[in-house]
Please model this.
Amino acid sequence: MNDPNERIILLVEDNPDDIELTQIALKKHHIANELIVARDGEEALNYLFRKGEFTELSLDEQPAVVLLDLKLPKVDGLEVLKQIRAHESTKYIPVVILTSSREDQDVLNGYKLHANSYIRKPVDFSQFSEAIRNLGLYWLILNELPPSAQ
Amino acid sequence: MRRRFLYIAFLFQVVISLLFHAHAADQSPVYDSVSNRISKITIASEPNYPPYCIVDSEGNADGFSVELFKAAAAAMGIEVDVKAGLWNKIKQDLATGRIDALPLVGRTPEREELFDFTFPYLSLHGAIFVRKGDTGIRSLEDLKGKEIIVMKGDNAEEFVRRENISTNIITTLTFKEAFQLLATGKHDAVITQRLMGLQLLDEINIDSIAPLDIQLDKFRQDFCFAVRKGDSRLLARLNEGLSIVIANGTYDKIHLKWFGPVIKEHIAWQDVVRIGLSILLPSILVFCAILIIVLRSEVKKKTKGLKQEIQQRKEIEKKLHESRETYLNLFQNAQVGLFRTRIEDGKILQANEQIAQMFGYSGRKEFVYEYSTSNNYVDYGTRDKMLEQIRDTGEIRNFEARFYRKDKSIFWASYSAKIYSQQGWIEGVVEDITYRKQKEDELNKLKNELELKVAERTKELEEKVAQLDKSEKAMLFMVEDLNRVNKALKQERLKLEVSNKELEAFSYSVSHDLRAPLRSIHGFGQFLLEEYSDKLDEQGRHYLDRVIAGTKRMGLLIDDLLELSRTSRKEMHRKAINLSELAREVVDDLKEEHPERRVDIQISEGQTTFADPHLLKTVMENLLGNAWKFTEKCENAEIEFGMENMHGETVFFIKDNGAGFNPDYKDNLFAPFKRLHSDREFTGNGIGLANVARIIHRHGGRIWAESEGKGKGAAFFFTLESPNLEKKGTENE
Model:
């Protein structure tokens, strides 16, 4: 896991367009890390806590960063964040909120629940792509993970 | 013979002394305790009255009287300081209190006015001394018109003057001088005390002068000690002392010392009878004198009592007279009518002027003469009432009734009377109270009027109160209506809040849900353009460009819309802010963004207000940003921020000399998405000013813009509600 290339990205996003655009952007910037996509909050939580279809999965393979949308079916983004921070096995995982909203309330709530970063998805694809590149660069390469997560 | 004479003299003097001693003893207890305090006194003696008062060869006072005085004083334990002086002088000294007593003073009525005397210890007769051989003077009567010499102030002088012996009186300071004058042939006679005269003549060796043998009955001298008038304490002590020395033989010894030898030498045997008589007679006389004095004092006392009685009677008489005067004065001058009538027939016995006038008579006499109780001076009913009361209680007090005058006119009077049955009359007082009654009537009238007025006013007030009640009711209804309206308003507001919430939700969904597909369009369009441009022709690429530009534009629009919505929903926190500083920050940012621009910027310093700093920053950014943008085509761009006071209201402004606008469309300036310039002229989306207007409105202020036309610059004015008028309602539009 110390190899940045083996670090996993968990994308929690219900919009297939955004998923695809994210994948395009990652690919465009040659970020080849494994991208796991959860299409709603519940699926994200199942993955993180190895429940449901993910019970077989090793607990070792926690993502290096979670890209979390707020408006999600079933369990919304803030609830997902709360659960991540509430569990010992996940509480140090960096979470970047990636959403369309720029409402002050949303930003504030995100940080209150200890999100590591808050990024608004730009309409402009070049800007969006740039944001994804910066994200990858920072969280996958520059950021040092806490010992327990390694 | 001499012994017998002495014995007789002694007997008399003892009788005298006892008499006076007893008298003195009567008084002594009163003064005893006090008199002990007298320890030393000063007396004075004349130098030339031998053998009673003389001055010895050493200049000390001496003589029978002086020695006797000293002995009497010593018996009482009093020390005596004796001075010598001329008679007239020392007499004066005693009267003025310079000395306490004199040892030898003949008692005369004149002197009793000045001094108090002890009982006499010597009683001597005076004699007329003439030149031997002068046959012109044989009796007292012969002295008429003659020149008589006496010592000034001596009893002899008093006697001569008192008895009118002669009008030719010559006074000398001493008898020695008098005898010397007579001896030298001047004047006609000297009158003095016989024994003293003889001794003095012997002393100065004059034998050409001798006394006549006639007895001067009216010039008898009782010699006493004298004290100041009223000095009863010393007097009592001296009387007591004198009695003691007489009783214990001291008097006798002193007498022997001074009189014995002299008399022996000068008195012949044939004179013994005469001398005896001359001693005996004076003694009897002294005794009589004492009796006389006692009687006189008794008479004096009685006379005094009688006088007092007479005085008292006079005073009583005077008082009687005075009170009668007072009574008459009171009666006649009283300001009320006074009368006295006989009970049996009602006849007026007495009346004063006042009552006569009261009843309309010309005078008192006419009233007394004509008036009788049978006259109708008062209504019969009233009269019966009055008489009944007098009969029952013997008097009547302050009975107020209407009385009739002589001419039957009416007056009000207060009537008081009392029966004196023994005297058989009635006395009374009548006071005219017409004036008072009038005033009472007037007062009653006033009171009634006042009551009427009060009643009127009360009624008016009640009416007013009733009206007020009505208006109060109306007011209550109004308040009810207001409450109803208020309730409706609250409901409306609630609805508004709900729709606000919906709007918020809408904005939120716009922000998320509209942007998401837009991002897809833009993202995939971009991707297509980047990765598949070789598969498209020029036209295809152009269309794709337009798609991408459209989505970009729409993204901006959505952002602005969100911004506008956020401005309305954002919570406001007012604080004191400095708009001048805010303006400077914005201008500094603009300068940094566009370093190539040269703009003349004027910022009025110290403009402060009370508002939300973030929102006001947005205002300043928009207004200054606009000014900056619309002056970019000017050569000498000018922007000014300042404040004006318009009709007492603080108005901030931002002026520029840029593009300006058509004033016809100035109302469109603050509507969202309305633009007065094309994008080709100036970029923008028409949200900025709408946003500014919203912020100003949320602060309770107004905003307006002025321009004289395109190219002539623009001015934006805004006000901000003063903080004390701020209400919560303003935060929710």
Remarks:
- Chain B has five domains: 2-119+225-301, 122-211, 334-432, 443-535, 571-731.
- Residues 434-531 of chain B form the longest helix (98 residues).
- Residues 17-35, 262-267, 725-733 of chain B have pLDDT under 50 and may be disordered.
